[in-house]
Design a protein that fits this description.
With 217 residues, the chain is α+β, with helices and mostly antiparallel strands. Helices cover 31% and strands 22% of the residues. An eight-stranded antiparallel sheet has the order 1-2-3-7-6-5-4-8, with helices on one face. It is globular, with a radius of gyration of 24 Å.
Length: 217
């Protein structure tokens, strides 16, 4: 008969083997991180390297949770607005194209809205000195809290041309002197604008790839 210490040692050995074989984590003990990758959020608008880097920097993480995004509804609204002419006094409300929070929690969030807008210019002289302007679409500019990109689109042969405004609302509390944050937000707004344009079949939008170049600091 085996001694008590021998039986205890055998039980521990079995437990170690079972622990090493269980978990379904590929055998290396590492769990798959929770949340969505940048390429998976909101139709994949942030899948390119520049938009992914901007998204990670804005929200401070590599995984994200959806926050009441209405991606398909936003696109449907734009198609409706382009299907029939509307009066100059009509001001359709923008729709939340994408809403995100970091998967690990915290107060940071990002909201991207899209909507048809009236004729420009969209940057008035009272704001021109407080924002950074960029080269993309019809007009693009950003502060440390919000990035905007406007582009022209005619989704279908039977539709009329509309101007789409894409707005990226960043986390609160970022100092307006943070010029890098301005570029991140306009990069995300531009990425969303390019994704919307592709979904709607827009051509000759003037939207650039990657990070828009500054035209005025």
């Amino acid at each position: 008969m085996r001694s008590a210490p021998a039986r205890i040692g055998a039980a521990i050995a079995v437990a170690v083997v079972l622990t090493g074989c269980g978990g379904g984590d590929g055998g290396d003990g590492a769990k798959e991180p929770e949340g969505l990758r940048a390429a998976e959020v909101c139709g994949g608008f942030a899948k390119d390297a520049d938009a992914t880097a901007a998204l990670k920097a804005v929200l401070g993480g590599a995984r994200f949770e959806d926050d009441l995004s209405k991606h398909d509804r936003a696109l449907a609204r734009l198609r409706d607005d382009a299907a029939a002419p509307w009066a100059d006094s009509y001001r359709p409300q923008p729709v939340k194209y994408c809403g995100l929070r970091p998967a690990e929690g915290g107060q940071k969030d990002l909201k991207v809205e899209v909507g048809a807008v009236g004729k420009g210019p969209y940057l008035g002289p009272e704001l021109a000195e407080s924002v950074t302007s960029y080269a993309s679409g019809l007009e693009a500019f950003s502060s440390a809290g919000i990035g905007r990109v406007y582009f022209s689109c005619r989704p279908e042969a039977t539709a009329h041309t509309i101007v789409v405004g894409t707005t990226a609302w960043g986390p609160a509390g970022v100092p307006d002197t943070d010029l890098d944050q301005r570029t991140r937000l306009v990069t995300l707004a531009n990425a969303a604008a390019r994704d919307v344009a592709a979904e709607l079949g827009c051509t000759d939008t003037g939207l650039v790839e990657g990070v828009p170049a500054k035209t005025r600091p």
